[in-house]
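so im writing up the methods section and need the AcrR family transcriptional regulator record in one place, dumping it here so i stop losing it
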Amino acid sequence: MRRKGTDTRAEIQDVALALFTEHGYDATSMREIAERLDITKAALYYHFKSKEAIILSLFEEHLSAFDELLAWAAAQPHSPQLSSKLLGGWLALSTGRGLPIMRFAAANQTALRTVLPADQGTVQQRLEKATQIISGPDAPLQERLRVRMALLSVHITVMASHETEAGDADILAAATHAAALLTGDLFPAPQLPLTERCGSTGMWPETTGDQRCS
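--- predicted struct ---
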């Protein structure tokens, strides 16, 4: 069965990310990525011109998802329910493909700094924006710190799960529980999205009430 173009692109990203994390970014060649996928180098270069292009595409898509979530949340009136939904959305985006991206970033800091453009902003900046939206104006320092810890719960859980049998679902469940414990007296427990993202106009269809995935 022939791969569709979008499927091949996603497969290349996933396989490259796994190889970069396993062997190191510098030690992995485009030839090895093509061999692992059982495609020709020409087919690989049709989708991505270099290793840098693969990594850039992954992080652009990943950061764009967070930006979309933050833009949606910033347009809503502040409420405990909004804080719950934003925290839940952040946790959900941090799992799935977010987990291997997180592992790659931890193992390839130098390569990452040379590949990503400086004008894209950092995860830290997005973390601060999410904290401001969730905490609301004039929140005391201790509350803001607890919210930041909750936003980082997936990252902490990934480190804690090292050399265990924990899968993505286990990590998300543990991180969500930890986030709820940290913020339980501030707003309701994090609400995880009920559906996957379905494009830029349907970020969280179950929360906006007027959009649905097709």
